[in-house]
Design goal:
By secondary structure, this protein is an alpha/beta fold. The protein has 7 helices and 6 strands. A 6-stranded mixed sheet has the order 2-1-3-6-4-5. The radius of gyration is 27 Å and the shape is elongated. It starts with a strand and ends with a helix. The model has no long low-confidence stretch (mean pLDDT about 95).
């Protein structure tokens, strides 16, 4: 079973933590990672794009010109998609882009994503990440001490000062352990866990 050092906010080793082999040493299944990431991005689409068909546009009650003798193609309505102001053929309509992901698949993909970070040495364990003030410079001091530059921070509870301190930083994101997902893990170079968050996700995924 692999072990990792548990740091404080000044990168002093507080303890040594054993990592679950079932969670952080699992086989990396890239096809599951791809499936879950595609589903995640699809679910973020608003799906509100819409166009009007020939039955939705105004006008078209009267035949625009006589059938024969004009030298033009026969035209029965101004709603024709061939005319300016007419309806759209095969245009987009509001829809749900969501994809179903089974619970077992989601858990397996999370294990794969966590195992990737553990094998790459991109996993950092911290005993506490609460900040006294909601200031970016205070967080940057902690990030500098821990060697963080592009990290997803996973905590057991939502730290308001931490969330406010990193909201203007492009390379950082903080989520609670209940909201951690494969896309965010892979989108950031480093993965930071507090000790309670590590225990909670291990308990859920090791089953």
């Amino acid at each position: 079973m692999a072990t990792m050092d548990l740091y404080d906010k000044e990168r002093k080793v507080k303890a040594t933590v054993e990592l679950s082999e079932a969670v952080f040493g699992a086989e990396v299944k890239t096809h599951l990672l791809h499936h879950v990431v595609v589903a995640h991005l699809a679910a973020r689409r608003s799906g509100t794009a819409s166009t009007k068909t020939r039955s939705d546009v105004s006008g078209g009650g009267k035949k625009p010109f006589r059938q024969k003798g004009t030298g033009r193609a026969r035209m029965g309505t101004t709603r024709s998609p061939l005319l300016r102001g007419g309806g759209t053929v095969f245009g987009p309509h509001p829809r749900d882009y969501g994809m179903k992901v089974n619970r077992k698949v989601m858990k397996a993909a999370l294990r794969s994503a966590l195992s990737v970070k553990a094998k790459e040495g991109k996993l950092v364990l911290v005993d506490d990440l609460s900040l006294d003030t909601p200031k970016t410079k205070d967080f940057l001091k902690v990030a500098g001490a821990l060697g963080l530059s592009d990290a997803l921070i996973v905590t057991d509870v939502s730290y308001e000062n931490l969330s406010l301190g990193i909201r203007n930083l492009k390379g950082f994101k903080a989520v609670s352990v209940d909201a951690v997902n494969v896309y965010d893990i892979l989108a950031h170079d480093q993965l930071v866990f507090t000790r309670p968050a590590l225990d909670k996700i291990t308990e859920v995924l090791a089953k």
